[in-house]
């Protein structure tokens, strides 16, 4: 009897502890989704670090060093695509399965993942969580400026949006895998092996990660334009963002019904895609180590492929380290911009660039407000865009200076890899694989801040904005 009473007492206490932790998680999920997102991502990284450290995760059957396991976990969960080990040969089949699962979990996005888990914990989304989730689907909705309801994702649609995220990921990756399978067979891959590599490549394309399951990477498929085009399509779909996919699914090609966010994302993405390809073609045309040894058609196609991959794709045919310094700068600029908001891509996002460009244009034209497609963009959206750029530039600058000081490597190579890590692109000059452990930790932090920091900063600014019932006297400092 005494043993039973002690057991019952311990059981009640355990239930109390679990219930308290569950309640704390529920309160955090509904009160501060951005903090909850950081907590979830940190927990996932620690979990995957432990799993990658297991001897069963490595091909050699030995434990992976902590620095490499941590870096791989961060790169996987943050869909960064950089690596300090040979991703194709270092990991066992179990390790590759972990990578596949990790990139798909990370691809759901910071706030989307937080909203889904918050929904599970609290059984329903609280008002603020709904606002933040709606803001992830359309950044204008999370801010206090006047927004036309036709442009906003209504609170009742948030649940539908979250289902669209999961369903679109499953459907798009499945479609990509089906299209990639024949190319793998033509390329000489064993049919059974291709059954694994096809969904793996599909996931790495849609999540904009860029890992390859084979040691040679894309080199055996350098002339397979069908496969490379499918990979570019996967990267494009992943980089435009779930809100744009949601809009296209609802309105198809009725452009007038598209949200301003969708229009800005698609237009800016297409412009940067063609502009990047043109600049790479111009700068690398005579470089024998990259495009110079190719025929005109190959050079043109590879320029477009490289432009698509610098937007956060991470796949590469050419040796990035052999590119001219001018091309590395252009690539860094494209990577810094990244893809669409609430997408698998990183960077400051194309809508941030579009809003700032529109603000500069409006100032040059002397307009009292920033306008696009018959809509006015509120000033608080412009402030968030400036905050994101300032935050991102600060992270990149500190990361570059720190790693350059640790490694004594050329600054242009360090800058390229740091921006690639921050923007979760995955392209590398070869520097990342040779980093000492202190620099590995710095780069891992840069990747984490790049994936989580800018989005949560925007969400925090939106969630903490308060109305002010008075105005201070105006005084204009000298600017410029």
From TrEMBL:
<keyword id="KW-1133">Transmembrane helix</keyword>
<keyword id="KW-0812">Transmembrane</keyword>
<keyword id="KW-0472">Membrane</keyword>
<feature type="transmembrane region" description="Helical">
    <location>
        <begin position="97"/>
        <end position="121"/>
    </location>
</feature>
<feature type="transmembrane region" description="Helical">
    <location>
        <begin position="225"/>
        <end position="249"/>
    </location>
</feature>
<dbReference type="InterPro" id="IPR003445">
    <property type="entry name" value="Cat_transpt"/>
</dbReference>
<keyword id="KW-0406">Ion transport</keyword>
<feature type="transmembrane region" description="Helical">
    <location>
        <begin position="381"/>
        <end position="401"/>
    </location>
</feature>
<feature type="transmembrane region" description="Helical">
    <location>
        <begin position="66"/>
        <end position="85"/>
    </location>
</feature>
<keyword id="KW-0813">Transport</keyword>
<dbReference type="Pfam" id="PF02386">
    <property type="entry name" value="TrkH"/>
</dbReference>
<feature type="transmembrane region" description="Helical">
    <location>
        <begin position="333"/>
        <end position="361"/>
    </location>
</feature>
<keyword id="KW-1003">Cell membrane</keyword>
<feature type="transmembrane region" description="Helical">
    <location>
        <begin position="160"/>
        <end position="181"/>
    </location>
</feature>
<protein>
    <submittedName>
        <fullName>TrkH family potassium uptake protein</fullName>
    </submittedName>
</protein>
<dbReference type="GO" id="GO:0008324">
    <property type="term" value="F:monoatomic cation transmembrane transporter activity"/>
</dbReference>
<feature type="transmembrane region" description="Helical">
    <location>
        <begin position="261"/>
        <end position="283"/>
    </location>
</feature>
<feature type="transmembrane region" description="Helical">
    <location>
        <begin position="439"/>
        <end position="463"/>
    </location>
</feature>
<dbReference type="GO" id="GO:0030001">
    <property type="term" value="P:metal ion transport"/>
</dbReference>
<feature type="transmembrane region" description="Helical">
    <location>
        <begin position="36"/>
        <end position="54"/>
    </location>
</feature>
<dbReference type="GO" id="GO:0005886">
    <property type="term" value="C:plasma membrane"/>
</dbReference>
